[in-house]
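Hi V.,

You were right to ask for the full record rather than a summary. Here it is.
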Amino acid sequence: MDNQPVLRSRIAAAAVGVSVLGVTAALVPTVSNAADTTVTAATPSVTWADKASDFTPIAPESDTIPAGWSFVGFSPDSSDDAPTSIDQLATFSASGIAAKDDSYVVLVHATKTVVTPDALPALVAAASATTGAQTDFGLVTADAADPSRITGSTYTESLQGASTTWDGRTGDETTAELVAELKQENEVVIGYAVELYGTSAAPLSSDSDTTEPDATATDPVQTGEQSAGAPTTNARIATPESTLEKLLPAPRANTFALRAAVTPAASGIADLVFGDLTTYFTPEPTAAATATATSLTVTQATTTGYTVSGSGFAPGETVTVGFSQGQSGSELPGTLVANADGAVTGTVVLPSGTTAGTYALVLVGSSSAQTASIAITVTADPAVAPVATPVSGRATFTG
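Predicted structure:
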């Protein structure tokens, strides 16, 4: 459930963290957005989930959450077999991940630790997401006595901080009311979910497979009947105890009927912040770094330094700089902060004891572990011609 050890090990390897240079150094940021209050600081961990291999399928009979991002869902094209790849249900693009037009998919991620009801309001208040109109956010719950196993879920159509409302068992409820309900039922939160459904996917409810439609009713949304031409998607829910049914939202009655059709791209999500993890569903950038001058003399390198720029980092994250030669190196004191575009700029001044040679500067995203390296050269200072020194003495003349 914890991504942090993986990120930290990648950072350690990238920053060549064996401090054998034995000298002090200074990193002096000259142009960074550390004081820009419009950029939110990155969470401790940042990851990208931008391809099928980033998502593990959840078996229909499973009641646990795999590590990292996982998914469960169905589509008319998936026959009777549970999809084995999220590509069968969703598409990836520069706008994020979106459900295919006739598909339904739930993306699931475990929380770092079990979240007690009392700890939930602070997490919800800090959570945010960039989503389309047909995308909902949910919390995955479990019995406090056995917090490893999924028992149910609750959803919201919009994360709005402390004012978020949830689809409760008796109607919309505030986070405070949800907390009270969790306490009463002795439940905890063990994960979070993103519900994506395509524009022609049939409405779903947690009792769609177990409740017979009323023969006298005419509203297909309320009765569970399929509208003309709509795919028979409810047949994909195997049993009331299936993983998918546990992750389905509560019945929504007219909610679906009142929603206007949206393009498939709007049936998706671009990014999500929950707890200490930010996930970007957009393509992972390739970090890169450059320097205005890569070759300086010893005096220049240890006084004015190298002006460096980096890109491809997570917005708002702290970026450290490693200074290495061959397999030896150390992390320089001081940091840069990525702007809203994930870019940094600063001046790196090398240690006073640096000698001529070839080195590398490694920029490392502290939250994302994105890395970029710059090869630099330090040359010897030009030789200084000796200054003639007059010699005192007496001259002797003859003749």
